[in-house]
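step 3/5: co-fold with manganese (II) ion
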Amino acid sequence: MNSPETLAHQVMGRIDELAAISETPGALTRRYLTDEHRRANHLVAGWMTAAGMAAAQDAAGNMVGRYGGAAGGPSLIIGSHLDTVVNAGKFDGMLGVLCGIACVQALHQSGRRMGYPIEVVGFADEEGVRFGTTYLGSRAITGALDPATFEQTDKDGITFRQALLDFGLDADRIGQAARRADDVMAFLELHIEQGPVLEALDRPAGAVTAINGQTRLSVTVTGEAGHAGTVPMASRRDALAVAAEGVLAVESICAQVEDVVGTVGILNTSPGAINVIPGDVNFTVDIRAKDDIARRDAVAAAIRAIRAAAEKRNCIAQVTVLHRAVSAPCSESMIAIIEKAIAAAGFEPSRMPSGAGHDAAAMAALCDVGMIFLRSDGGISHNPAERTSEADIAAGIRIMLNVLDEMEG
Ligand code: GLV
Ligand code: MN
Ligand code: MN
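step 4/5: write tokens
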């Protein structure tokens, strides 16, 4: 059997191969239902097949590889995502899929089958960059896709429904991707930490306790475009001034509550000329917390502040909820198994919550979930400088193989 070190080296090479499939030359961007998504699925399907799995794309565009067990019964699903943010790092998501494939490859090479089937999933959309709504791939697997999401549009006005058709899929058949709870034993996700905790502890891996909930809003402010030189300050209806107050309100509201974070990541102004008062502005808000009530309170306060800023300037603010996900706890039994697996690999286990969203949060609606976090260099993520060392990836593969043994019961 290949050693975890050999497998980690192979994973590193594959990380680079996947990172070369991008919509943007010189930077990694791979959104849901694009040609690059199709090419990434094709590459991953080849690796799944070479590792002894039967590979197929499901009705939502997730790539699924299956490695049968010595007995039938429910599967352990291992997975993470293959889509990326804009100008992304190359480890976020991909690493979990590749480590899952590496573990199955190790079993296959030694002619071994676990007592249960293993499925490795490369989820099609976790980041939600294209349609603003996250976890579309994993929610299709849990059967929890809200039909309203099919009408959500990307920045070019293409609906999710149309994008599925263009990709060769059908919104009306997406239900075929759904799995039955009695067909799934548990979900295991390995992911980079994307934060500084493990590095500060000088440990390669940790067990995640819960994944924070999140709300994403789209805010459209309508004022009136006008001449920058002639319209008196008192009679302006400046939509960007409203948005600016909104951005600062999100920052101060979230800063006042422990463990609540808020971000405005996109802001577009129209008409966008140096000598024209902005008449229309659209911006996004992303608010997260481990406590669902604290998150809801912060969202409500932000919406109140945006509406008050609009009223003050005789503008109209329209708020649409793009996405809402409750905080998702990992199962105690999976946390205990992962801690044991970390210790068996020779490392000190740590428990930690996840501030970032993960497919495991959506999968928690279907089955028990557990997550292995691997140390991120400098805690950097959603940035091309994102990196996890080959030695830590080898530790992750060793830990994942230990989890597979533990799950044997
Ligand atoms: C995904 O990485 C998210 O947390 O937004
Ligand atoms: Mn991400
Ligand atoms: Mn991720």
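step 5/5: annotate
The two ends are 23 Å apart (CA to CA).
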